[in-house]
Design goal:
77% helix
């Protein structure tokens, strides 16, 4: 069973990361090409605006889902640091549980929206495609984020109460140093 979840974890992370990057690249490229066409050639690509919006929407929502995997969403732990470790751990599990419930509901209601759009044969204006296709991002991205929030619940539950906040802070410091390319002392979280 552990191997199944490991493969699922890699698959979801790869999909989230690649669709986030692809969405941003397509969105920026289309916006740039459309601006050049409009101002340099006095022509506009009529469908580019709508596709740019969809590309950014997909990139942003899949990027947010990937953020749960990397632990880069904002967490305010100042109050948790003042509480006894077991209470802080319980609050973190509670917070991740609320996040999971919210994200799961958003995924479910996104799926319901797709069914409604499909039944109504709603079409996009410029691209002339069924509206349920760009709306697929809702159940997929929110479902991936809900999976990650659920994963965090189990990670925090397994972790020793004294190490829960320290682990969260180390993830943030490690991720920040990784993105900036700085060398950071792993024990103290300070630059070398």
């Amino acid at each position: 069973m552990g191997k199944f979840f490991s493969i699922l974890d890699i698959g979801i992370a790869t999909i989230n990361r690649n669709l986030a990057v692809l969405g941003m690249v397509v969105g920026v490229t289309l916006a740039f090409v459309n601006v050049v066409a409009r101002y340099a050639f006095d022509e506009s690509i009529t469908w580019a605006g709508e596709l740019t919006n969809y590309a950014f929407m997909w990139g942003t929502l899949f990027g947010a889902a990937y953020g749960f995997k990397r632990g880069i969403h904002i967490q305010v732990t100042i109050l948790l640091a003042k509480l006894p470790a077991p209470v802080a751990k319980a609050f973190m599990i509670f917070a991740y549980t609320l996040s999971f419930i919210y994200l799961a509901f958003m995924s479910y209601f996104g799926y319901q929206l797709i069914l409604i759009l499909r039944d109504m044969d709603e079409m996009s204006i410029d691209l002339n495609i069924p509206m349920w296709i760009p709306t697929l991002v809702l159940p997929l991205a929110f479902g991936g984020a809900a999976y990650r929030a659920g994963e965090k619940i189990f990670e925090v539950a397994k972790e020793d109460a004294d190490k829960v906040l320290k682990t969260t802070e180390e993830e943030i410091i490690h991720d920040t140093s990784e993105r900036s390319g700085a060398n950071v002392d792993e024990e103290r979280g300070e630059p070398l």
